[in-house]
Design goal:
Elements lengths: L2 E5 L5 H15 L5 H18 L1 E7 L5 E8 L2 E7 L8 H12 L4 E5 L3 H9 L3 E6 L10 E5 L13
Parallel strand pairs: 4-5
Antiparallel strand pairs: 1-2, 2-3, 3-4, 5-7, 6-7
Helix pairs in contact: 1-2
Amino acid sequence: MIIDIKAASAQDYPLLQAIWSRSVLATHDFLKPEDYAEIKGALIPHYFPAVSLYKAIDRNTREILGFIGVLNGGVEMLFIDANARGKGVGRRLLDFAIHHLAATHLDVNEQNSQAVGFYQHYACQQTHRSDVDSAGKPYPILTMKLPKKIPSNGSSHE
């Protein structure tokens, strides 16, 4: 699969919100329903416009596979559609964020073991842990430093 990275626009927001929803439902079983609804409702009016937002697109099908948002060197969001996970989309988006958006760090829910494992495999290193998220809710957050040199996984990313 050849993946292109393109800037997202407000026209993409509904599709990105749907990808966020499918991704979160597949990976965030710890999230309370009311918190899920609150975050989902804030994506389009608040969270998406606040970051440099990029989408990963399958070059052949033109389908949006996932997205990344970066602000002040921090990866604020990285979500991959549930049916596109494990195909190199997350790695491709992180590679792009490091090279083109000067991303240096990220926060991840400690309870999202799949994401934590992905970032560890990518050679991210934990630098901090908080018992609560940025909204003060009881979702522990790990701050991780992105590698300066992108780790090789033996495959090509086009």
